[in-house]
Design brief:
Blueprint: H1 5-19, E1 32-37, H2 51-67, E2 71-73, E3 77-78, H3 83-92, H4 96-112, E4 124-125, H5 129-144, E5 148-158, E6 163-165, E7 170-171, E8 174-175, E9 182-192, H6 198-203, E10 209-210, H7 212-222, E11 224-234, E12 239-244, E13 255-258, H8 264-267, H9 275-287, H10 290-295, E14 303-311, E15 318-323, E16 335-338, H11 344-353, H12 390-404, E17 407-413, E18 418-419, E19 432-435, E20 439-442, H13 472-475, E21 476-478, E22 485-488, H14 496-499, H15 502-505, H16 518-524, E23 529-533, H17 540-553, E24 565-569, E25 572-573, H18 590-597, H19 599-608, E26 616-617, H20 620-637, E27 640-641, H21 650-665, H22 669-685, E28 689-690, H23 691-701, H24 706-716, E29 739-746, E30 749-757, H25 762-771, H26 773-779, E31 784-790, E32 794-799
Parallel strand pairs: 1-2, 1-23, 3-4, 10-24, 13-15, 23-24, 25-26, 27-28, 29-32
Antiparallel strand pairs: 5-6, 5-9, 7-8, 9-18, 11-12, 11-14, 11-17, 13-16, 14-15, 19-20, 19-22, 21-22, 29-30, 31-32
Helix pairs in contact: 1-24, 18-19, 19-20, 20-22, 21-22, 21-23, 23-24
This protein binds one RNA strand through strand 7, helix 7, strand 12, helix 10 and strand 16.
RNA sequence: GCGGGCGUGGCGGAAUGGCAGACGCGCCGGUCUUAGGAGCCGGUGUCUUCGACGUAAGGGUUCAAGUCCCUUCGCCCGCACCA
């Protein structure tokens, strides 16, 4: 019989579907395992070969856990709101709902063709009103707790999309989605106070098992720093507050820089004598994105505010005030005290504008460059701080500032609040009513979901408002509080909203009374293993942790953290080693791979391609190796004879069971497959295989190649379905051979190889090594100074 | 500029501080064949052999370094000049 993968794969996929083989059961007495992969955005391009890398890896984990007796939840769904769909809808005059439906249908059939063991009965879709009802519900809870608020603020405005972007969505100074220019604009926006959770988000990283680089990246993003706020008085009598992490260097502050957007500039417009210049600079800065401001970092620009000055509170010296775009209004207080002696940017600025540079920490050469690496230095030119080490000076100056009432210690975070509004159609409507009398009033929960109304056009309004703003009938409503005339909010939520809690919905996806039942959440949470891309580390992953923590605080979810473990996969690149993209023409279509080689080969190759955590280039040639492997498994299975594991294969099987099991848990599927290949090579060399051997081999291979193994299981006549069996056990004692080859080294150079009993004593091993001709030759005439024996590895004779 | 990674055969990659190159691709040779771009068997880091040299380059720690430390170079990812 031939290995007809097309027939076999269809057959088993249908059987699994019919039987609901991979449905998680609601039997809360069983041990559970919740494996999660990031649900995809169903784009018009269809599935990318990168998607199955993550899905297959955790599919393997899920299948192994089922073998081990766990009640496994491995769900899938669709993160379907978003701009590409909306843009496609605008361009082609098709309703985004239709576009979404079509894209999902395609994605789903592609995923199904890979034989992934998702529980499709729990499929969720963020654009389904039954789903976003609860997204809106969570927003209302945030609003009621004061964590959602509206703020007139400087926002990133995309000229292309005509909409506001979260800072996090601006990539390289252009819109992440359309690539359009991003400028600053003032707009009243719904915001979420993620900053309120900054400390918790930081602290609780210590309680979760995330790979280290994810933790590091989140910590740096949250960016906690300790320092002080210092209030400088000015010649105008106003106070200018700065935040600094180096209050110890206050005596070295020779000027001040405020961001071009700083409000005090308007207040001083009458006294600033060069206001024309200031206004011009301000306008230029507004046109620049934060990224551009950083790009021109080397060439510092700025304008001195003539006619005003600040006063350094420690020595009463008047110091000039500048505006410069290297100071951002969004961090700290939007104003800094410049210490050119000990800060590189300030030093460059001071050099350019001919400002005084004072050394306040000994040790560097401030004529040549700023002395920044001075944490262990001693203070100079600093009055009462002179002679103190930097750390002590920090404490003393902070005490001084606090006593005098001109400053105090301050913890600062880089993390900023989340801009939670989009002037777009294809998103969850924000369930808020604007009442001229009562202000912003939340919709009553019984009114949810507030569904998206039908519109003619999805184009944002000319002024940048949402397409919903043109629907007078929909907008006009009554105030839930006073009953008077009021208007609906026309902005929608960002795409991140629906993905911030989807893993909760999987626990109980059809519940109409709650986002999920208490029992289901108690049982399934936390997610045991969550895998996703590094690109979501600071956006989605942080947002969803924030929402989860909030829901925990209001008693909706039972755990403070959503995910117990987080890993991250590397990207799959094109054959040319570049990122796959339409324009480069290096995109590989997974459908073709499945067609030409089968899903099992595809899965195997996705896992064998390289180190899971690193990027790996696709290579169509290499797929053949995985196909050959399965062909050989098929051929060997046809030769199967009765009997258990033959003695000469006993240790090989025990070792392979151990290795494959451990490697799956370590996310090292590539070496697990290599171990199975090695075992197959050994079996093939013996020209035969027994039923007992094949049973274990098929079980170990099943998570990787589920279709062919089920088929062979049935062909050989093993009882039941393969997926109902249990994971084989290994005996540690049988993983060890009775004899082992060790090397004999002289001064670290290999001189001989010795076959020795595995438990040979150190003395015997050394004696045996020394009796070897080559070893004896190498040590001849020398004095042996040291002898090292590493069990099962080597003997090293150190001779001089 | 800041933060996080990564540099190993022709290629993808293996390697608890302990024989560098497992496994696979490709390539070379053989076999079978009317044929081979199928299958099977053997070989395959570099150098001229005994042997020596080899994990981006240089230095260090160690009996022993791809692995740990320092310096340099190159590449990738993220970014908000974060005061």
């Amino acid at each position: 019989m031939k290995y007809d993968y097309k027939k076999i794969e269809k057959k088993w996929q249908d059987i699994w579907d019919e039987k609901g083989t991979f449905h998680a059961v609601n039997d809360y007495s069983k041990p559970k395992y919740y494996a999660l992969v990031e649900f995809p955005y169903p784009s018009g391009q269809g599935l990318h070969v990168g998607h199955p890398r993550s899905y297959t890896a955790l599919d393997i984990v899920a299948r192994k856990k089922r073998f081990e007796g766990y009640n496994v939840l491995y769900p899938m769904g669709w993160d379907a709101f978003g701009l590409p769909t909306e843009n496609f809808a605008i361009k082609n005059h098709i309703h985004p709902e239709i576009v979404t439906k079509n894209n999902i249908a395609r994605f789903k059939s592609q995923l199904k063709s890979l034989g992934l063991s998702f529980d499709w009965s729990r499929e969720v879709n963020t654009t389904d009103p039954g789903y976003y009802k609860w997204t809106q519900w969570i927003f209302l809870q945030l609003f009621k707790k004061g964590l959602a608020y509206k703020k007139e603020m400087n926002v990133n405005w995309c000229n292309g999309c005509k909409c506001v972007l979260a800072n996090e969505e601006v990539v390289n100074g252009v819109c992440e989605r359309c690539g359009g220019e991003v400028v600053h604009k003032t707009k009243s926006q719904w915001m979420l106070k993620i900053t309120e959770y900054a400390q918790k988000l930081l602290d609780d990283l210590d309680t979760v098992d995330y790979i280290e680089r994810v933790k590091t990246q989140q910590r740096n993003w949250i960016g906690r720093s300790t320092g002080a706020e210092v209030r400088f008085s000015t010649t105008q009598g106003d106070t200018l507050t700065v935040y600094t992490t180096r209050p110890d260097t206050l005596f070295g502050a020779t000027y001040m820089v405020i961001s071009p957007e700083h409000k005090i500039i308007d207040k001083w417009s009458d006294v600033i004598t060069n206001m024309d210049e200031v206004v011009a600079y301000r306008e230029a800065a507004a046109r620049k994105s934060d990224f551009e401001r950083t790009e021109v970092a080397k060439d510092k620009t700025g304008v001195r505010l003539d006619g005003v000055a600040a006063i350094n509170p420690v020595n009463d010296r008047e110091i000039p005030i500048f505006i410069s775009d290297y100071v951002l209004v969004s961090y700290g207080t939007g104003a800094i005290m410049a210490v050119p002696g000990h800060d590189t940017r300030d030093w460059e600025f001071a050099k350019k504008f001919g400002l005084p540079i004072i050394e306040v920490v000994k040790g560097g050469d401030i004529e040549k460059e700023a002395f920044t690496d001075c944490a262990t230095g001693i203070m100079v030119n600093s009055g009462f701080l002179d002679g103190l080490p930097v750390e002590e000076a920090k404490v003393k100056i902070t005490e001084f500032l606090t006593e005098k009432g001109i400053g105090e210690p301050k913890v600062n975070f880089k993390l900023r609040d989340w801009v939670f509004a989009r002037q777009r159609y294809w998103g969850e409507p924000i369930p808020i009513v604007h009442c001229p009398v009562c202000g912003y009033v939340p919709l009553d929960e019984s009114q949810l979901p507030l569904t998206l109304p039908e519109v003619e056009s999805y184009e944002p309004a000319e002024n940048g408002d949402s397409p919903l703003s043109t629907l007078t009938e929909w907008i006009e409503t009554t105030c839930p509080k006073c009953g008077g005339k009021a208007q609906r909010e026309t902005d929608t939520m960002p795409q991140w909203a629906g993905s911030s809690w989807y893993f909760l919905r999987y626990c109980d996806p059809h519940n109409d009374d709650a986002l999920a039942s208490k029992e289901a959440l108690e049982y399934w949470l936390p997610v045991d293993w969550y895998n996703g891309g590094m690109e979501h580390t600071t956006l989605h992953l942080l947002y969803s942790r924030f929402w989860h923590k909030f829901l925990y605080d209001i008693g909706v979810v039972p755990t403070p953290e959503p995910y117990a473990k987080r890993t991250s996969h590397g990207m799959i690149l094109g054959e040319d080693g570049q990122k796959m993209s339409k324009s480069r023409g290096n995109v590989v279509n997974p459908d073709e791979v499945v067609r030409d080689y089968g899903a099992d080969t595809m899965r195997l190759y996705e896992m064998f391609i390289g180190d899971f955590e690193k990027a790996a280039p696709w290579n169509t040639n290499s797929i053949k190796g995985c196909k050959r492997f399965l062909d050989r498994v098929w051929n060997l299975a046809e030769k199967v004879t009765d009997g258990g594991i033959r003695p000469q294969f006993e240790s090989a099987f025990h070792k392979t069971i151990k290795k494959v099991g451990e490697d799956i848990e370590r996310l090292k599927q590539n070496t697990a497959i290599a171990a199975l290949m090695t075992l197959l090579n050994e079996l093939e060399a013996s020209k035969s295989v027994t039923k007992g051997e094949m049973k274990i081999f098929l079980t170990l291979l099943n998570p990787f190649a589920p279709h062919i193994t089920e088929e062979l299981w049935e062909n050989i006549g093993f009882e039941g379905m393969l997926n109902e069996t249990t994971w084989p056990k290994y005996d540690e004692a049988k993983c060890v051979d009775s004899t082992v080859e060790i090397v004999a080294q002289v001064n670290g150079k290999v001189k001989a190889k010795l076959n020795v009993p595995v438990d040979i004593s150190q003395d015997d091993a050394i004696a045996l090594a020394l009796s070897d001709e080559k070893v004896a030759q190498a040590v001849e005439g020398k004095t042996i100074v040291k002898q090292i024996y590493i069990k099962g590895r080597l003997v090293n004779i150190v001779a001089k």
